Amino acid sequence: MKKIFSLLMFAVLMLALISGCAPQAEEPETETEAEVEETEVAGEEEKPGIALLISAAGTLDDRSFNQACWQGVQDFAADNGLPFAYYQPVEDTVEAQRTIADTAINAGAEFVIINSDQFKAAAYYMINDHPDVTFIIFDTVPIDEEGNEVLTDNILAIQFKEHEATFIAGYAAVVDGFRKLGFMGGQAVPAVVRFGYGFVAGADAAAADLGLTDVEMLYNYSGDFKPTPENQARAASWYQGGTEIIHVAAGPMGASVFAAAEQNDGVVIGVDSDQVAESDTIITSAIKDLANVTYNSLQSWYDGTFEGGKIVVYGAAEGGVGLPWESTKFENFTREDYESLLERISNDEDGIASRIPTDEDYELPTQIPLEAITLTYVE
Predict the structure, then answer these.
(1) Do 283 and 328 form a contact (C-beta atoms < 8 A)?
(2) How far apart are CA 107 and CA 87, in angstroms?
């Protein structure tokens, strides 16, 4: 072998500094690097690397989407002795994103995970520039210069029915006794919109089933995913104004809502992964099985069964979305209630799943037909 992974990463760092983008590697990677060194000394071929690309607007330790995917990467790499790293451009431009992908691949990455809708334009170039590299992309599909969706054999687009998870969360919140609810999203990208619309629909369905007329919901997109004083102040003002529970779907921005809830006796519903350990205020989370889906995608690549060129969607029926029941802290919405509703959605009984609105149905939450709740869209 010509080089060990640790020396390779040094070379990559120098290249990245020149290009204006820097790769990010987690500190405890020395054990994995040592394993690679040993195989090289034994004369084996250099092992393929794994790269996770996250947007400039995100963070690896977002306690949400990125962190869950990273866990899947770490678990698979540990089980198979493979080198891995994550990479983040300094800005979310097509040029910077393409450069960071080139950097990762030049460093030895043969499997690249694209972890944001913000990469969809750059992803088109990545998959065509590197036809021998395998890609997966979450929550979006690559688009060409005319905005047309493009799928090649070396990429798999993975999406989730987030609206099913949040339908359950919204329904459960109302059954549990909450009457003043809030939804705070980050940017209005498709996945965030699906989280919001499902939450609205679930709360409305529960209110209608219970014959309630006093359920209200505030709805807002912050326009970013950052844990800023402004986002915390907005959440605090909602709690101080009477909002009892907020579902936040905004990655790192969730920390702002957690802090506001802690200071104002509020309650939170988390997102993407089980966030209950992040704050005592979190009652449940609308989750996507990101760690396992990432792991299983890596496994299919590694054992030669990977099938690209298509979109796969994980919903309740596929075990891809739901609530982490073991850590959920509802008082009146029971496990039996949860399992019954999950089964109804999984089987689309009485068309319940088909009626949950998605980002493709309405441009604004105010367009969703509501039977029982009052929705206020805060722009």
Answers:
(1) yes
(2) 11
112-121 per-position pLDDT tens digit:
999 888 899 9
pLDDT band at 63 (very low <50, low <70, confident <90, very high): confident
CB-based burial, 21-58: b 16+ in 10 Å, e otherwise: bbbebeeebeebbebbeeebeeeeebbbbbbbbbbbbb
Q: Kindly state the tokens that stand for 255.
A: 């920390």
DSSP 3-state assignment of 325? helix
Q: Could you give the CA distance from residue 21 to residue 292 in angstroms, rounded to a whole number?
A: 29
Q: In what order do the strands lie in the sheet with 374-377?
A: 321-322, 282-288, 267-272, 245-249, 180-185, 216-221, 374-377
Tokens of 15: 């290249």
Q: Which of 151, 24, 150 is nearest to 84 (CA)?
A: 24
Q: Find where tokens 């309650």 sit.
A: 267
Beta carbons within 10 angstroms of residue 320's beta carbon: 23
pLDDT at residue 60, as a whole number: 87
Query: Which helix (H) or strand (E) covers residue 113, if one does?
Result: strand 109-114
Please enumerate in sequence order all residues whose Cβ is within 8 A of that of 17, keeping only pairs 6 or more positions apart, or say none: none
> CA-CA distance, 229 to 154, in Å (whole number)?
42
Instruction: Provide the whole-model pTM.
Output: 0.84
Q: Are 364 and 377 in contact (CB under 8 A)?
A: yes
Strands (E), 213-309: 216-221, 245-249, 267-272, 282-288
User: Helix, strand or coil for residue 12?
Assistant: helix
Rounded distance, CA 134 to CA 45, Å? 19
